[in-house]
Amino acid sequence: MAKAYKELLSMAIPMVSTRFTQTLNTFVMMVIVAQLGHTVLAASFSISMIRIIGMLIFMSPLFAVGAVVGRQYGKQNWDAMPQIIKQGWSVALLLSIPPLLIFIFIGPLMVLCRQPEPVIPIITVYFKYLVWALPSYYITIVNQQFLSGIKRQNVVLLLSVISATLNIILNYGLVLGNLGMPKMGVAGAGISSIIIGYTNFLISSSVIIYLTNGKVFYPFIKGLKWAKSILVIGLPIGYRTASDMVALLVFTVMTGWFGQVAMGASQISSEYMMFVILPLFGLSEAATIVIGHALGSKNYLFIENIGRATLNLSIGFAIFIATTFVLFHRQLADLFIHFGETDAEEIYHLAMWLLSVQIVSMLFNAVIFAITGSLCGFYDTKYPMWLSIWTSWLISVPLSFVLAYQVHMGVVGIAIASLIAKVVSSILLLNRWKNKLAHVQTTEA
Prior knowledge:
The protein is mainly alpha-helical. Helices cover 82% and strands 0% of the residues. It is globular, with a radius of gyration of 21 Å.
């Protein structure tokens, strides 16, 4: 087990730190934007959710790049690397088109979804700028997956630190008008996203060109073998994410129906949950790559220990964050809420109810991310896909309507319905992992 923890942590610490830093980027941006008032706080809930939903649905297939590169790295198949990265870039550009179109027409879509009228112009302004950054974000994900797959995860971490520094400076300056920069409000946050996106793209691409000795430029793309592999493995991840994100979109729209207080409280809860979700996702990515290395080198006996180590670390991290929330919930709320305003106490109490449910939910999220990432190392992405679709649309969404409207629990009912679905998912995924290990052990024997 000691070797498994060492191998996993050497990959996971930079990747978790990267995801944590990326979470901090969004969190800092939203805290700064929230200083513009509670109407902007309510709008930032929709901005945050739509950004996550719109980008992740189409970006998630690209996380298969790490699995593909990790397996080839384990086989020491260096000749494949330039073709994988080039074909990965091509897939990334193709996948960036649908969210770009969604963001362009976000204003009419918000009207169609009957969102509060005061927040729609604020949302529209932000996405008017974000659309220009989308291609850079998608290609950067491919670069990060590639670098992690060849054990250059420290480079990815360094890039995320540079990104975080730029994020604080640019948002503090352009949103609030500090550091000699013009005060641009929410538009400043959008412009900051453009600058940060292309900075990450240029630096990470330059590193890859250096590591491949410029071979990414020649010969031209030969066949579509690696693009097909990325899509075959990645599309089930995309479908699973699409199911989760569309369900999240339903919850976002439902939250808007309860008004700006519900939106503001949900934004606070959601922002803090990202501090759990994205680092857990980083640990999940690390498990995918390390298991891919083990399978590529045919080190089958090592895989069970990696899975157990991933699960233990995920649950331990979730418990640590949950304890932090319990101890410092008031101080954390102070970052978003202006307690001198009339609706401040109402937002605060509702946010605390939501966080209480989320604290329990994050423990089951830890199991889901750990097992899903481990299964992805086997290229087993279809089972998690179907499980996510079933639990979202047979449990979470219908139960949300019942608890929110029939039982009159409001947005707290939505959170409880999501928790119940996660409990079911975590139990079934653990059983899937147990069966997968039994199969590997039989193959080895």
